[in-house]
Design goal:
This protein is mainly alpha-helical. It has 2 domains: 8-197, Up-down Bundle (Growth Hormone, Chain: A); 229-437, Growth Hormone, Chain: A (Up-down Bundle). It has 15 helices and 4 strands. A two-stranded antiparallel ribbon has the order 1-2. A hairpin with a 2-residue loop joins strand 3 and strand 4. It is globular. The two termini are 27 Å apart.
């Protein structure tokens, strides 16, 4: 790496390329994937759609676990080429299956099943590659930038998809296929390998089938041992647990909080100018809160990163979790639009304070030779948090409405307690390193 790494021009070319592709792929996929479940539900019903969603979610989880481990063994770029190649082909198939010349709902589903397996495998691989070439001094800034690009692409992509998905599905899916092919092209031409991995050993005189079977058995055994080692890292598991609890709060808005607002919130006036007034009710309120969160992130992530640059990471993460937790507790208790808007503002500020720092701590815990496996296991927190979000719908059937905010506070306290433990272990490790020096 040349130049000052704290300046944009000092970033490794791989980081610049992947951030650019993150935006392009995020923009195009968000025009399609958020609406697929709705589309499938209108065609095959809620029950079959639910089975399909669970199936592709499991495929993504398995893809992450396999891809993360194999990127450590084979090399980042090799696995990315395989994954992006498969994703490009499957998006072309999806586009064709929704074209004027061919229509197949189940063909779309099976192509997406394969696609999401390899998409799941890409995430830990890309995260590991970025970590390979990013010194600790700039990781927080990279995570801020990545977070901003993710939200910007989501805001623009979902907005466009909401208007165009039903009438221009083939065109949108073709755009995703084109973006994936472009990403594959940049990986082939521009991306440099950052982790060579290990070359498989082959004995002379073995048949092709014996070699293939031996390699398969070897990879399965090695993957098992990789995750067995990862599972012994208590600090990493505690950090992952905190992510499950805190991301579980984030999943309350489209689950319990969304249902509560849509059923309990009557049309409420939020603005009046003369004889003209604006009212909002439950479902619209959920959309406004989601839009507020996205817009605030897009507008203020850079400003907040600048204002908190002198704040200690430990202070930033703890203050952030407190604001984040209190905001969700208010969301779970109030039906007043302006109180809800203020709560979402508090949540967003808290999230911007703690989320990038948590990524920095994760990067410190991950050993160089197993980054893919660690990120793959950490990535499971998103699926577990989704399940936790759905579980609150069932819990709410037996708890009084005032009990849910208390559970939110308990989840936030659990997430904070886990992070305090991580901070202490991090301080102890620093002390041991100073003693050895």
């Amino acid at each position: 790496m040349t130049g000052d790494p704290t300046k944009p021009q000092g970033l490794h070319p791989n980081v610049k390329i992947r951030l650019g592709m993150q935006f392009a792929l995020g923009l195009t996929t968000n025009m399609v994937t958020p609406f697929l479940a709705i589309y499938f539900a209108t065609q095959v019903g809620l029950t079959m759609t639910g089975v399909m969603v669970i199936t592709v979610t499991i495929a993504g989880m398995l893809g992450g676990l396999i891809g993360g481990a194999l990127s450590d063994r084979w090399g980042r770029r090799k696995w990315m080429l395989l994954s992006e190649g498969a994703m490009s082909v499957t998006w072309l198939v999806v586009a064709w299956m929704n074209s004027p010349w061919a229509r197949s709902l189940y063909g779309t589903f099976f192509a997406m099943l394969i696609n999401l397996f390899f998409a799941g495998s890409m995430e830990p691989t890309v995260q590991a590659m970025i970590l390979d070439v990013s010194p600790a001094i700039i990781r927080k800034r990279i995570y801020f930038l990545s977070y901003w690009l993710k939200n910007l692409s989501m805001a623009v992509g979902v907005s466009l998809g909401g208007f165009l998905f039903l009438t221009h599905r083939f065109a949108l899916m073709s755009c995703v296929a084109a973006a994936t092919l472009m990403s594959l092209g940049t990986t082939i031409i521009l991306l440099k390998e950052t982790h060579d991995g290990l070359s498989p050993r082959v004995r002379l005189g073995q048949s092709a089938s014996a070699v293939a079977m031996g390699m398969l058995q070897s990879e399965v055994v090695q993957i098992y041992h990789q995750y067995k080692i990862v599972a012994k890292n208590r600090v990493f598991l505690v950090l992952t647990g905190s992510a499950v609890l805190l991301n579980g709060l984030e999943n309350q808005l489209p689950n319990y909080i969304g249902i509560r607002l849509s059923t309990a919130m009557t049309p409420t006036k939020i603005m009046q100018v003369g004889s003209y007034s604006v009212s909002v009710k439950g479902i619209a309120m959920v959309g406004l809160l989601q839009a507020e969160n996205t817009v605030l992130v897009v507008l203020f992530v850079g400003l907040l990163a600048y204002l908190t640059r002198k704040l200690k990471n430990s202070q930033s993460i703890l203050v952030g979790v407190v604001l984040y937790t209190l905001g969700y507790a208010v969301l779970g208790a109030s039906l007043s639009p302006w109180v809800l808007f203020i709560a979402m503002f508090t949540i967003t500020i808290g999230e911007l304070l703690y989320s990038p720092v948590r990524q920095v701590y994760l990067a410190e815990l991950v050993p160089d030779n197993a980054r893919g496996a660690y990120y793959a296991l950490y990535q499971l927190n998103a699926q577990l948090a989704t399940l936790l979000g759905g579980a609150f719908i069932l819990v709410a059937r037996v708890l009084p409405s005032w009990g849910i905010p208390f559970l939110y506070v308990a989840m936030g306290a659990g997430g904070m307690g886990s992070l305090v433990y991580v901070l202490r272990m991090r301080a102890h490790r620093a002390e041991r390193q100073m003693v050895h020096l």
